Amino acid sequence: MSAFSDLAAVDYDERIVARVPGYRLGQQLAAAILANRLGDGTHVLVVGCGTGEDLVALVRALPVTDFTAIDPSAGMLARAVTKARQYGFANRVRFEQATAVDAPRETYHAALASLVLHFLRDDGAKAAFLKAVADRLCDGAPLVLIDPTDASLFEDDYRQWMIGQGLEVEAADNVMTRVRKDWFRATPERLADLVTEAGFEAPQVFFTALGYRGVVARRIRAS
Ligand SMILES: C[S@@+](CC[C@H](N)C(=O)[O-])C[C@H]1O[C@@H](n2cnc3c(N)ncnc32)[C@H](O)[C@@H]1O
What is the CATH number of domain 6-155+184-218? Predict the structure, then answer.
């Protein structure tokens, strides 16, 4: 199970910016891309919303859009709900404790999955995740993914970047151990294949940073 623990939720917001290069930029670009492609009265599915950091960027960029935000982790979701109340956007978001495959069966105008897919094995789980999202999108709907892809050439640089962000050497090494042991990073080519096989046009890359990749792909008409 790839749902985050309650413990992981506690200091996620402080930790993530020093562990994901371009974390804020990726969220802002994703929000701008969706804002540029969506009209008023639209409904966006946010898959694996975590503590709601991606929602904060989205609600700012899309002021008249509604959202359904799902995450299997109760701890992460609770933080997202609290944040939505604090920032005054709770009335625009329906929160559900769910994975992608059991997301509410509605038709959405777009979807975002930021930093989720790499937790799933490429044994059918990644494909099922993407297919579940595709099944819930209308024709032409954009899917934005932010995902760490396989970047073995940059691994030492990634470790060095985290140390530069203030992580102790031991903490950076622990991250690298988890990256190698617990993450299932697809190559950029495999990620593109998975997206197209799930029913999307070839994904366009809008962001890369030490292997982290932002892509956007349009849902092809379901046959
Ligand atoms: C690294 S966090 C990303 C949170 C947020 N999207 C962000 O960019 O900060 C990954 C989140 O994905 C959730 N998750 C794991 N497996 C999932 C699945 N199959 N479907 C939806 N969410 C999942 C975890 O519980 C966790 O909250």
Answer: 3.40.50.150
